[in-house]
Amino acid sequence: MIDHTVRTHRSAEDFPYEEHLAYKIARVAADPVAVPAETTEMIINRIIDNASVAAASLTRRPVTVARRQAQAHPVEGKGATVFGTHGLFSAEWAAWANGTAVRELDFHDTFLAEEYSHPGDNIPAILAAAQTSGATGADLVRGIATGYEIQVDLVRGMSLHKHKIDHVAHLGPSAAAGIGTLLHLDVDTIYQAIGQALHTTTATRQSRKGAISSWKAFAPAFAGKMAIEAIDRTMRGEGAPAPIWEGEDGVIAWLLDGPDASYTIPLPAEGEPKHAILDTFTKEHSAEYQAQAIIDLARRMREQIDDFSQIDSIVLHTSHHTHYVIGTGANDPQKMDPHASRETLDHSIMYIFAVALEDGTWHHERSYAPERANRPETVELWHKISTVEDPAWTKRYLSTDPDEKAFGGRAVITLKDGTEIVDEIALADAHPGGARPFAREQYIAKFRELAEGIIDDAEQDRFLEAAQNVENLTNLTELNFTVSEDVLHRAPETPEGLL
């Protein structure tokens, strides 16, 4: 890996475009280096993982709206598939629909460093472009490897949340780079697409603050849609604002740390294989990633408590991110509100710990049901929980040493008689370093569980066979899954839109 220093440059400075971060990323994307076998194996796992969570969310309202929007853009002969349906649709709208389905339940993969990310969000846009272009499975694998590599590398070196910019600002460029790899585009074309994709996908983090709405699911899908459109425009000869990160009025100068700041972004050297996907991790539970280990901790600690009504307080000692984004440090009263949206409850570690402690399990639907959130004893317990930042956990969260890096915390449960029950966990059970790491068997089991009652058994078998043979596929529509009209009829009625 090569560390690249990225800073603002005045317009009058001599700053050749070959030195722009977008150009350096484009060179990585255009590098014809082979994809390592272990990277390919993990890409297969994540294709399966994305389909799992998309199936589980298929009839939810935001996913239904996105699907119906895509269905308003059918095409013949050259297009992309939409989960659950037959036929072909415009690539950018297929990416929109499938990206929303993948993201809706907050149940797919994650990478955390200076910034936060869900690198699996790259797959819907890259797959839609692959299907539309008639690319092969081997091309798709190369594109996905790039998408993961670029997003992870940006996340390692450049914080967005510090300035309340939503993390999908790293996704637009990574998806554009991945599509560039997929299509074997030249460096200059990819460079322009990266600039356009970044320029159109910067937004504030209000989408993840206060009353969190369904836009949280739409946001990465929008970034993927913009990446496809950016690629299309630049293939037709159009350009982008430049230098997009380093310009005098660019992202660093006005959206991030300012004109005097610099960042270090690691990127693979020419000819260096792309391994970044191996540093990412998926979820066993449908919740914000920082909640994964805490759910496992709650399930373990409940065995030491005979009567939950005797709990006086619970304090979770954890990282800066967990405390300030999904803990009481966020100062969001909605995170303590039993009438809050599912999206908000998903970002309340207090709610999540209370339910996991009481139930000893976590379910992507039942654990968020309104009747579950409004259970009086749960509300009482929930309101006894607070979080504090512990510098030691923050240090582990930000560590670049894989043996030290962790996303857990320590729980102190104080009973009314003064007894303290204390336990801690560093990694979620499903993490590669956890108690029960996810491998192919677990990805398939997750797919089977979430697809049950939605995708019939024969279609499940067909999809899994295609996904595991992705390198040899010549027809990438095989990576779609379809469901019966009876399943689609479970989706809610939604008002007509404009399109």
From TrEMBL:
The MmgE/PrpD N-terminal domain, residue ranges: 20-263
Signal sequence residues: none
GO molecular function: 2-methylcitrate dehydratase activity
EC number: 4.2.1.79
Enzyme type, top EC level: lyase
Database matches in Gene3D superfamilies: 2-methylcitrate dehydratase PrpD (1.10.4100.10)
Source species: Corynebacterium yudongzhengii
Domain MmgE/PrpD C-terminal: 285-471
Protein name, as recorded: 2-methylcitrate dehydratase
Subunit structure as annotated in this protein's UniProt entry: Monomer.
